[in-house]
Specification:
Length: about 400
């Protein structure tokens, strides 16, 4: 798809660019933006859909373990909040580990990422210890992390996590924490002590992850809030972006809301604050690389990566899931005891969505949520566009010194 990008610099100077999402080509005022020695040899993506399902098979590079949906919080935009907990025990964790060799074909440790999800994983400490100990014994060099809200952390748990080589990803929305999530670990003495110890002594083993909403849209304010509370000068902060599938409870509702969010994010992209965020810095690097290598759109997979055969989400019962956030029975796509029968038929690659293929930010967005449909998809798509339009404009500033002021569809 071809788009005309209208660019403007801080001095008012303007230029026009032609951007081809199919080939990642960029021409500015008639001149190719960059000469490419050779095309990037990237394999085509697997275009999954209910009628063309994907599969799961090793060597696996990413394992997501869903420990259970129990949680001590009820975040307003949580994808899991309406689901019921399916009880599991330490025996389930032991059986899970004992059965790994029947289906688990991992890549080398250096390429392996293991994520442990809830609910809130720290509610399951007995199971968590069994899982982490067993998995670390098998994969001493793998990147292993636990996604947590941080409220149940103690110094003892933090030290155990560091001993096991665990990375802790703590969900926190900075000044929006109270209104969006409720409990704040930074107001719980034991949790605050543990988090302060981690960021002071082992900063590379902890990061914070935020969700942006209309009332909490500044990455800089979120960063400063956390740094002040923790008494440090620098934290590792990532973001899920603008709130996605949430039934409209916290989504921006008007064009004015979307414009305010886009301009705020663009300001932080131009100032450099946006690039201090792990997620956004990676997206900008990836976008620049797509232009430099002429990455074809046909090689781009879904943002979360769960459409790929070497990434898999499972629960402790051995059910293979569409993703770790979809525990519904209809989102179970098979069982590890019969991996040859596992089929990802509950997801839709963005190439099957006409709106995605006609979108100028598709290389950055990568199709948002692959299983959302109906009203959820409409809200997710619009929110994702607002977020990534700001990033794309900011990326152009860092490439050319000029921001995107308008985008025209050509064909």
């Amino acid at each position: 798809m071809l788009f005309r990008l209208h660019l403007m610099g801080p001095d008012g100077a303007s230029k026009t660019a032609i951007y081809d999402t199919t080939t990642s080509g960029l021409i500015i005022d008639g001149q190719p933006f960059a000469e490419v020695e050779k095309d990037c040899a990237t394999p085509p993506s697997v275009l999954v859909s209910p009628s063309t399902p994907g599969y799961k098979g090793g060597p696996f590079k990413r394992l997501k373990i869903q420990m259970g949906l129990a949680c001590n919080m009820a975040c307003s935009y949580c994808l899991q909040v309406t689901h019921r907990e399916e009880k599991t025990s330490t025996l389930d964790a032991e059986v899970f580990l004992a059965g790994l060799d029947t289906w688990w074909r991992p890549d080398r440790d250096e390429n392996l990422r293991i994520e442990i999800w809830g609910g809130e994983p720290l509610l399951h400490m007995a199971k968590l210890r069994i899982l982490v100990t067993g998995l670390r014994a098998r994969h001493p060099k793998a990147n292993m992390l636990v996604i947590t809200n941080g409220t149940l952390l103690t110094l003892e748990i933090a030290r155990w996590a560091r001993e096991m080589g665990l990375h802790l990803a703590i969900s926190h929305d900075g000044p929006g924490q109270r209104s969006m999530r409720g409990l704040d670990p930074l107001e719980i003495p034991a949790a605050l002590e543990a988090i302060r110890w981690l960021v002071a002594e082992h900063p590379h083993h902890v990061n914070f992850n935020c969700v942006l909403t209309p009332g909490n849209l500044s990455l800089g304010r979120i960063r400063h809030h956390l740094e002040k509370a923790l008494g440090v000068e620098e934290i590792a902060l990532s973001t899920e972006g603008l709130v996605q599938v949430d039934g409209g409870q916290t989504s921006p509702l008007s064009d004015v809301d979307h414009e305010a969010i886009r301009l705020s994010l663009l300001d932080e992209m131009i100032s450099g604050e946006g690039l201090r965020n792990i997620t956004i810095a990676q997206k900008v690097r990836d976008f620049h690389l797509s232009l430099a290598s002429r990455r074809p759109l046909s090689s781009v997979g879904q943002r979360c990566g769960m459409d790929r055969h070497h990434q898999i989400a499972v629960d402790l019962k051995g059910n293979v899931l569409t993703c770790q956030n979809t525990p519904d029975r209809e989102m179970r796509i098979g069982h590890v005891s019969a991996m040859d029968n596992v089929r990802l038929d509950t997801a839709t690659h963005f190439s099957h969505r006409p709106g995605c293929m006609a979108c100028p930010v598709v290389h950055l967005c990568q199709g948002a949520c692959m299983y959302a449909e109906g009203d959820d998809w409409d809200a997710t798509c619009r929110n994702s566009f607002t977020f990534h339009a700001a990033i794309m404009s900011g990326a152009m500033v860092h490439l050319t010194g000029m921001a995107i002021t308008d985008i025209e569809t050509l064909r």
